[in-house]
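Handout, section B. The chain below has 522 residues.
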Amino acid sequence: MDQTIDQPIAVHHKVKDLLTQLCSGLYEREEAVSLSLLCAIAGESIFLLGPPGVGKSLIARRLKHAFLDGVSFEYLMSKFSTPDEVFGPISIKKLKEEDKYERLTDRYLPGANIVFLDEIWKAGPAIQNALLTILNEKIYRNGDEDMQVEIRGIITASNELPPKSANLAPIWDRFLLRLELGNIKQFSNFLTMITDVKDVYEDDIPANLKLSNEELDKWSGLIDQIEIGPEVLNTIQLVKIKLEEHNVRIANAGHPITVHDRRWKKMVRLMRTSAFLNGRSKVDLMDCFLMNHCLWGSPDQRQIIRDILTEAIAKHGYTMAVNLTSLKKEVKEFQEEVEREIRITHTVSTEQLMPIEDEYFKLEKQDSKFQGVLVTIKQYRALSIDDPQVTNFYDEHKNLVNRVRASKGKQENTIEVHHDSAAAIYSLQTRLVDKNEIISKKPHAIVQKFWDERHQKLTAFIHQQLQNMNDNRPAEMDLLDNNLFVDGEFSEVVKKNFEEVAANLRQLQLNLEKLQFAYTNI
């Protein structure tokens, strides 16, 4: 970009300080104010959805103070509103002297820099039709002449979405950003707000922070030079594909998320503006989260869009040219080869206690002096050697026939029973069970040398990839939390893919170290 290195930083600091001043005295409206300012600088419009009394008009009035030459126009629409009230009255002088049908626009919408139109859906067709060209082309048809308007930002508001019965889709599509506002949520903010005596309508913005027309025109040219990186273009493409996949599902046939080409183009311009105002020469993935406010057509679609966008960035965001799938496969094959060579499976038969109906062990009795042939598995396992405990013994029919002291025998699978002032040792019934045992075998020296070379090659490659990721880590990743227009919580999503690749490489490195230790220490 053709600009000094200090200029982007200066722009960032100025806009940050300006937003701080604009939000002074407002509570939980930082996002609405910042997005409204972003729209105004980008030359776009924003729609605020919310009930009366949540500060929609206040945001518009505060925003006009951001501009040095700010002229604002505010109007509450009704079904009785006329074009004269919005665009200005007919010039009687022009009509009499020149036979021209022309409006006096100076103190009305066409002559303003910041426009706020409340209850926009109540406007009649004549007003809506004129607004279409103003919103899209910044042109107002005044009589037989096209008038270029100097409107920086248009804020519209309503407590409802456009009625489906009315033909309002064209004008609804013109509002690039859509934001829903509600009442203050945090109780501490609510108490502060109702007791605060600050005049929030007062213009208390320092003159050095206000934006002049000359400055904004210069910024506009610089914004057009902002670079769009491949990761951002890839994200936009993925989101578009996912939206199309969403729309073709039968369940969503009646509620498609429709986004036309013009809106995509305007979103890119908005992201460029965000990058410039954040002091960058390149759009980053944090700027992509602005699409959350641009793609939905009804509030129930917002979570769908957020999920699609989050998944696209988390899985395909900042990454490096590391073929993890191929690398994981190679390490796995190496591990399997080593295990086949150093581990021999040997089958042995061992005696194990044989449960009776999964509840008892049976005594192999040698005499008939002691009654009872069954002991519960639970009681036997609770016994210990040389510490007799009162134990229940049962006959073949599971009837309790004796309660005497018993302990585990010193020999495996035996029980020592104390009765008639003596102790008798009985074996418990067992069965032979085949068991696989792993025997480790030291590899041949030539094989071990080959493995060492393979280990060294893989380890060096992984180290090189980690070093490459560290050396070529995108610089913007260290500034993700400082985006003026996107919540810092999204920075974790942006970092996720990059950090997961690094974590996978480190895990593969550790697996190789364990593997080498296994075959060299047999």
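Note. The chain has four domains: 1-224, 226-317, 324-343+441-520, 355-428. Compare this with the example in section A.
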